[in-house]
Amino acid sequence: MPYLPRGRVLAFAHRGGAYHPEIEGLENTMAAFRHAAALGYDYLETDVHLTADGVLLAFHDDVLDRVTDQQGAVRELTLADVRRARIGGREEVPTLVDLLDAFPGARFNIDIKSDDAVAPLAQLVRERGLWDRVLIGSFSRKRIRRFRALTDGRVPTAADPLQVVAWRLSPSARLARLLAGGGFAAFQVPHRHRRLVVVTPGLVRRAHAAGVQVHVWTIDDPAEMVELLDLGVDGLFTDRTDLLKDVLQGRGQWWSLGGTTP
After folding, report:
1. Is 60 a catalytic residue?
2. DSSP, res 91
């Protein structure tokens, strides 16, 4: 099955479901992803940084300070250094390969958080044949464009920030494509950015007319989930994996690939 099946809502466990009451404080850990998989989540969201010795970490911040008992910039530390850190006082920081191997039936949505992670991630995708197992995004236009070039456009990617702005403000998909180009499989955007409503009926309509999906992050309120699903969005990222599953089940929209739990 392709990464982005049509006609199904994708439920993404954001950093493994970072604010589920049972695993709060354990974001981006093996424990969090196991918890999400046990709930039936097939689509797992994480981030990547590169260590000083060239290892891709599934970690959000550029420093260890916020979520671990150690300090330091990831890019200046070796894997051995990082392995000494504990998230929530007990969990190791996993490598991206750790996650891929632990959840062979899962699909991963990966946010590139540093420039130096782009080429190693592209190399890993090629070596592992991950063409249909990952979707790659980044807040950096430079990073996502470089990743697309290194993988010959074979991997589904999210629109870069300039593309999001163009498609949100343009009256037609044709004009948006002329202004900012295509080459992406999904918009992965917030519902709102400051005072601007990003996800509108018009954006959803233009995206679908162009064969592009709309995924919204990070939605933890059931009423907002329902509002967005009623607009026809194709996927939701959540830290509250329990609440999103309940909403989707109540609407008859919950589904699973099966085989994610290790």
Report:
1. yes
2. B
